[in-house]
Amino acid sequence: MPVEFLASSLLGRSLGGVATTLISAVLTVGLLVGVGLVAQRLGRNVFHRLEERIFRRLPVARGIHRAVRQLFDLFFTEGGSHKAVGLVEYPRPGMYALCFITSREPWRLDDGNRGQLLSVYLPTTPNPTSGFLLLVPKEDVRLLDLTVNEAARIIISGGSVPSPGRHLRGAAGSDAVASIPHPPPPRRGEMR
User: Fold this and answer.
1) Rounded CA separation 100/46 (Å)
2) Positive or negative, the Cα torsion across 73, 77, 80, 83?
3) What is the pTM of this model?
């Protein structure tokens, strides 16, 4: 054991198993605290670049890491008008699930009946990075007055950390997302 070897070289005698374990635990905690302090000082960008460099070299993990990173960036970075929390009937009528509205620009379905579909991401509990993309009729999505962080806390905890009073508040003015303004269509030749 390296700690036992180091202690016996410095002290000139062997330590017992309990002492070696305690020294190992203290060194491990010290290392973690040190890495945390360096991370605070240097900022997250250095670690993000290092993380990207490492995962870029791993063939299978590269695709998974990129998808998970994009999902986290989508929901948990500051700013951005796409962040909204909604409620949809799922998996059957009468049961509801929290969802994240990923785009306010609706999909158009050419069936004549329910022509506008909204992209919503339905996360799973307790790991919100796995979930389902659902295209839901715009009028069937209820906008909630919850932040993404509040909704994520509810989802990750399995509902045991609810919003105050266990009351889901609809957004001011409307039950459905139909009244949410969405960006104008792109101009000719302009890409989104």
Assistant:
1) 30
2) positive
3) 0.53
Residues near 129 by Cβ (< 8 Å), separated by ≥ 6?
Answer: 68, 71, 72, 123
Intra-chain end-to-end CA distance of the chain, in Å: 58
Cβ burial, residue 136 (10 Å; 0-12/13-18/19+): buried
Rounded Cα–Cα distance for residues 17 and 9 (Å): 16
pLDDT, tens only, 110-139: 766 667 889 999 998 888 778 889 999 988
Measured distance CA(173)–CA(144) in Å, rounded: 11
Helix, coil or strand: residue 80? coil
| CA-based torsion, 110, 113, 118, 121: positive or negative | negative
pLDDT, tens digit, 9 for 90 and up, residues 9-54: 666 666 666 777 787 888 889 998 988 887 777 776 777 788 888 8
